[in-house]
Design a protein that fits this description.
Elements lengths: L13 H6 L74 E2 L2 E7 L14 E5 L16 E9 L17 E6 L2 E2 L1 E6 L2 E7 L5 E4 L15 E9 L31 E2 L3 E6 L3 E10 L4 E9 L4 E9 L2 E8 L4 E5 L14 E9 L24 E9 L4 E6 L2 E6 L2 E2 L2 E6 L13 H13 L4 E4 L6 H10 L2 E5 L22 H16 L6 E5 L10 H11 L4 E2 L5 H4 L8 E6 L16 E8 L1 E2 L16 E2 L3 H21 L2 E7 L23 H18 L2
Parallel strand pairs: 23-24, 23-32, 24-25, 25-26, 26-27, 28-29, 29-32, 30-31
Antiparallel strand pairs: 1-12, 2-3, 2-4, 4-10, 5-9, 5-12, 6-11, 7-8, 7-10, 13-14, 14-17, 15-16, 15-18, 18-19, 20-21, 21-22
Amino acid sequence: MKSQERPFEYPFTRRNFLRGTAALGAMGVAGTRLPIKKPLSWNARQHASSMPQPGETGWRAKQPPLSTPWTHQVSPENCLPEYPRPQMRRERWSNLNGVWQFEASDTGGKPPIGRELKERILVPFPVESAISGIMRHHGRMFYRRRFIVPRSWNIKAGNPASHHQRLLLHFDAVDFEAHVWVNGTLLGVHKGGYDRFSFDITDALRTNHANGPEAEQELVILVYDPTERGTQPLGKQRVSSIGNPRSALWYTPTSGIWQTVWLEPVPDAYIDHIEMTPHLAEQSLGLVVHAVNAHHHVIEVAAYDGGRPVASATGEPNQDITLRIPKPKLWSPDSPFLYDLTVRLADRNAPGVRDEGGAEATHDKRKMIHPHVDEIRSYFGMRSIEILSVRGKPHITLNGQFIFQLSNLQQGYWPDGIYTAATDEGLKFDLQQAKQLGFNTVRKHQKIEPDRWYYHADRLGLLVWQDMPATALGHQRLTANKPVPYPGSPKHREYEIELRRIITQQHNHPSIVMWIPFNEGWGEFDTSYIANLVKKWDPSRLVDQMSGFNVCGCGLGSGDVIDRHNLRGVSAGPPPLPRGHEAAIIGEFGAYGYSVPDHTWDPKHSHPRLKVSGAEALTRDYVAAMRQIREFALKSGLSGANYNLFADVEHQVNGLYTYDRRVFKADKSRVRDANLAVIASAAELLR
């Protein structure tokens, strides 16, 4: 399917941003009605700041053990400039990525308000990364930067009727605990290394002098990251892995800011977030538009197919809205069709205006066109995921049809940026290559990615099995009959809180079809309780309550799949068998690996799980394993399988790609043919 990219219709260009033009000053004022003819381009790099931000000097990247094709494309002027949340796009925003002041602080201490810090760091790259310019681990650290709010944004606290705007400060991810000050005012504390958070900083801003220049503001952040000494979800991060040649399973930690920081003006009443759930049987999309200060407002939503309106609805903020989609085009790996969506928050007390046909609006909510006070652009896909019987056995089905889900395990680590890809093209690379290799699924292992990663998966048409990052609370051996109960302690409560946030945050992506709360017993507790919670929070997806039940002998029951790991030999089997209502998948198999000279993190200490002699041996074993997977699909009722792993990570060299993404370690053509043959087994089974 061709890309659905379209030229961005507004004059938001990076050149204008860097030159400080005021092209956007008159746009998007509350109370005006902007015609919606063509949806906002999903990949637009729009920046609405009307003047350049204060800069810092003195930053220099360090030399990573390996560079990627994108390492040297990074600069303070070109630092992840893309709009960070493609499903919540507004017209105006300002990116605060770039060079910040930095200072390690082992004890925390008094925030450096009004004080210059010693070092410079490139945000949003974690402090352990080479691109950050620090390339050291610190458990506590201060960040500081200055910024200017464009006068054209009309930011001012006070009477909302005056049409003044509020200003939100967004952090898309900071690991782990962030204390945030603006101009010496502590705005709040956020705990959680993977979920985004925001503060309304309007009342903390310094006011501009009449007819004078915009006032300079000060932002200070204290970050605390205990890594494995804490009880928070952290995935495979470990301080103990740094400089440890025996660490093949655990990797360099990510501390501090590791996703985009940005500013966004909003009206006093504004859309905070939306929830979208497709219902194919009803040919509808269920929506809840969560709005702030929206006591006297109404929601207007409209869906588009390539710029052509196909559906609209009106409803109340923070309540269920049904958008009827007649004869919906379905989203799938073969045809990842996405509808555009516009959501408006309108003032129900304002007089109606003429509709596009020129007729006077009536008081009928279905026809009323109110002056809007806030508007966001989004997208959605219509698809279903469920367990259905195929030839008498439970199988995973997409849109009511069995599609064998052939996955590859992606961990999202980079030798230059650790958790943060150098560029958006780099972030997209693993997904693009997986698609070209014939995979239709990705298991995102022990990490939550930036929103743009899921946006790329949505557009490319890749199904996602999404892990929740584990805690470092140990390998708990549970059984279905004698589970470790939920103790209710803060260390387990933190996991539950962050799990809920992640499920809510990523709910709208059609690519995500399954949640995996636990892997191989890592930090696990009360498996059935957690699986039931996830089902309650998101009944629209499947739950794999324990990936690799056989590794820990634990975690069966209450989920939708039975998931076996086969990493102890060249064979991809034995296959798990469907039982009751549970479909069967192989959560990990393969792990054939070898080191490639000049493309290895530590040439003297590399650890393949199952060592092979080179490209030909890797290809041979891979193709043989895929033949077995195909046979399991045809004869044993297997619904999906996940190859471990897509790219090397640090000392672990089981990847199809090297860690720097420069060398594919097998024969691409034979790998692709083997993958496509596995996926074709579904059609053969259904004959």
